[in-house]
Amino acid sequence: MSLRILRRDTITKPLFKWAARVMPPISETERDAIEAGTVWWDRELFTGNPDWNRLLAMPPAKLSAEEQSFMDGPVRELCAMVDDWKINWEDRDLPREVWDFLRKKKFFGMIIPKKYGGLGFSNTAHSEVVRTVSSCSVVAGVTVMVPNSLGPSELLMHFGTDEQRDYWLPRLADGREIPCFALTSPEAGSDAAAMTDTGVVEYGAWEGEKVLGVRLNFHKRYITLGPVATVAGLAFKMYDPENHLGRGKALGITVALLPTSTPGVTHGERHIPQLTHFQNGPLHGKDVFLPLDLVLGGEEQIGKGWKMLMTALAAGRGISLPAQSAAAAAICARATGAYARIRTQFDVPIGLFEGIRRPLADIVANIYQIDAARRLTIAALDEGHRPSVISAIMKFHATERMRDSVGKAMDIHGGKAIIDGPRNYLGSQFRSAPIGITVEGANILTRNLMIFGQGAVRSHPHMLKEILALSDEDEAKGLDAFDKVVWRHVGHAFAALWRAFVRGWSGGRIGPAPRRAAMPGYWKQLSRYAAAFALIADLSLLTLGGRLKRKEMISARLGDILSELYLLGAALKRFEAEGRHDEDRPIVDYVMRQGQGRIAAAFAGVLDNLPARWAAILVRLAAFPLGISAPAPSDELTGAVAETLMKDSPQRDRLTPDIYLGEGHAQHPLKDLERAFRLVTAAAPIEKKMRDKHLHDPQEARDKGVISAAEFEQIADAKVAVDGVIAVDAFPMNEISPIAAQHREKKTTAASATGRAEASR
User: Fold this and answer.
1) What are phi and psi of 554, to 5 degrees?
2) What is d(CA 678, CA 695) in angstroms, rounded to the nearest whole number?
3) Helices (DSSP H) in 200-296: which residue ranges?
4) What's 320's DSSP letter?
5) 601-639, pLDDT tens digit by residue?
6) What is the mean pLDDT of residues 533-553?
7) Tens digit of pLDDT for each residue in 310-348?
8) Cα dihedral 469/472/476/478 (nearest 10)
């Protein structure tokens, strides 16, 4: 004990004073954000020595029999009721019968426990339902998504009083109440703490009685379901100038349950997000009075709204947006592979051109990667974890890789994809891609500030304890706490240096891999990168201190490394969990090589730009003595991966499961595409027979006896189907242009007048 006191007073104390100068104090808002949610696998990655066996031992995401029945029944029924073109270009809304069906089948109450009248589904079911519904219609997917993620239901379950749960949850479960979450305002987008929406504690009239409550004034925008919502979870800054509650004047961000029928509330107008017509619009309030009973969680939760928001955001980031991204990526993968097979140029399927194969292979890699990480994340959520850092990783990378898939799918389809109409199955995905990028934390902010910035504090084994010690108002107590943790941090740093050295100098050959893993080399490389990441993260924090907040490009690259470690581990786990299909090995190889290339680029970017050059040199010498190699997929591997989507096979179905392909519709663009694809692949042996005889005309081949009459009909049917898919829509001018309609009406009127004049003569 005396030695520790001596160390504290002689060595730790100067270090404590130095750290207090370079590390800015942690604000209450930042503390709430950091403490929201939990840590999970992100902490393992920050140790630099993740236990891969623990990752593989984690049970996979799985639906219950009841949840599977819901997927096979109501979810498929809903998809068959939806006409995406009609929703977006004619009705500008879901049909009334669809709204009624959503209420009747309790789509809005999936996450609400059964005791409150909800379905009580798991996070896995929530994700799968949103994924399938979004594959048929983005509008329907968003409408189902919002009440089950960022909204009053989740907040009530975590923070509401018993009375609030008993009243509101049954009404939300059966659709009597439609919820929205009112957070964003013109002054506060990503920086929600900058909101100017206020609630002042005062006495007012409520249901004929004088009660203590809050007088609200607010202006919210971008509120999904806002125009039709009957109750809003409203975030505002609460003030008590007369100190009615005895807690001071500024009480902090608070959330209230706001019935939108309350006098002073104005809603019903609509935004149009990228011509994707889900309900979204502004919400205004002027001198709106609510009793304190409608503060979410009651008086106890006043001022704790920021922590509520950060906790609730994890669901949208970890479940809903990755599910929608997986749906879009799966549609792109399945449709683009089929189209690349049936569409020919120069008598060759376009998917055989090497220029097409690279983007097609990227589309395959994206869907494999997104779904691997999505399933791993929802499995963790079902185990009770609420990993805020992992959710941020999922939000950014799922939506970005979805956007990459949509862009590449559009490129491969060419003119087919840019002409809107009922035959276009990519237009909605293309228009809605920027929405996922923007909502629930803009991706630029998420990458540059949140993933590593929040992760370094929340997930690092020692950093949060050190910061809290430095922020302690009792300096003596803070010094003592700092002394206990900082030397553990020093030991952690030296362990990271040793691991990085051993694994780096062995080229990744020495390092942990799961027992009996199918691809141990990749696991060992991830172990090497994890050790190097732990080392460079500590050195960046040591040398930059609080300045790392402003070094956003360095922070972003460190976040990229952390993200790739998670995503690549998820891909390898998926390969193991699905039974190590040999035909999937090329896809895993492609994903891993791409990911290793991204990790290498991120490491190089940090080391090239780290201001402390000695730290950069140390990491290079220890972890990358022969330089930072950036592997890339070979041309042969790229071709093999691209072909997986051009074959009618169980593998193709396994890569794109449970998406809606037009079942229940007499005509549907994806249904027509699937039919053409199967006809073309079935006719491929017949076409080969013709090519072997140097014949290209099926009629000539039939006349010469090379193919039979039945085979001729088979090729003819395939051609008709392909022609139908390749066709695009065209509309009469007077239907799409008011100017053209007016011009035509004038011409008709003039012609009629001329005709009458001639008749009179």
Assistant:
1) -70, -45
2) 23
3) none
4) I
5) 999 999 999 999 999 999 999 999 999 998 899 999 999
6) 91
7) 777 766 688 999 999 999 999 999 999 999 999 999 989
8) -10
User: Which among 320, 356, 323 has a CA at the least distance from the CA of 339?
Assistant: 356
Residue 72 DSSP one-character state: I
- Residues with Cβ within 8 Å of residue 198, at least 6 apart in sequence: 216, 217, 218, 236, 237, 238, 239
Mean pLDDT of 50-62: 95
CA dihedral 554, 556, 561, 563 (to 10 degrees): 160
Residues classed as catalytic: 440
Handedness of CA 750, 756, 759, 761 (dihedral sign): negative
Do residues 7 and 483 touch, judged by C-beta distance below 8 A? yes
- pLDDT, position 364: 98
Confidence of residue 2 (pLDDT cuts 50, 70, 90): confident
Strands 231-239 and 179-182: parallel
Both tokens of residue 546? 């609080």
Residue of 507, 618, 600, 621 whose CA lies nearest to 557: 600
667: left (phi over 0), alpha (psi -120 to 50) or beta: beta
> What is the chain's length?
761
State the Cα–Cα distance between residues 201 and 291, nearest whole angstrom. 9
Q: What is the pLDDT of residues 353-366, one digit of tens each?
A: 999 999 999 999 99
Q: Check whether 351 has a pLDDT greater than 70.
A: yes
CA–CA separation, 618 and 535 (whole Å)? 10
Spatial distance between the Cα atoms of 325 and 371, rounded to a whole number of angstroms: 9
pLDDT of residue 696 exceeding 90, the answer is no
Query: Vertex 472, ends 471 and 474: CA angle to 5°?
Result: 145
